[in-house]
Design a protein that fits this description.
Blueprint: E1 4-5, H1 7-20, E2 25-33, E3 37-45, E4 53-57, E5 60-64, H2 69-72, E6 76-82, E7 85-91, E8 97-98, E9 104-106
Parallel strand pairs: 1-6, 2-5
Antiparallel strand pairs: 2-3, 3-9, 4-5, 6-7, 8-9
């Protein structure tokens, strides 16, 4: 089981952590929400929790709670720019459907 980031996403995460002046990595989770049933949740983590599963990829620590891992296993987090917009993009092999806005998914 694993979760990874692309080099571009890693650069963005490390740059943001540096700007914040604190943090151990990026916390990834899923929650019940959105029009497709599940939504991704991201936040910068200042410390790890005892239950966190920690994956290291491209020099970045990714913290995932055990409940979210089955939905995120094999996911690659990318950072993309599309026109004037930029943000994280989840390449999740477990997602069977996504809503039109890309904010939620179904497994």
């Amino acid at each position: 089981m694993s979760v990874t980031v692309t080099e571009k996403a890693a650069r963005h995460i490390l740059k943001t952590l540096d700007k914040r002046g604190k943090g151990v990595g990026l916390r990834l989770a899923v929650k019940t929400s959105g029009c497709s049933g599940m939504a991704y949740a991201l936040e910068f983590a200042d410390e790890s929790q005892p239950e966190d599963l920690i994956f290291e990829s491209a020099g970045v620590k990714l913290l995932v709670d055990p409940r979210s891992l089955p939905y995120l296993d094999g996911t690659e987090l990318d950072f993309v720019r599309e026109g004037l917009n930029e943000g994280f993009k989840f390449n999740n092999p477990n997602a069977k459907a996504e809503c039109g806005c890309g904010e939620s998914f179904a497994v």
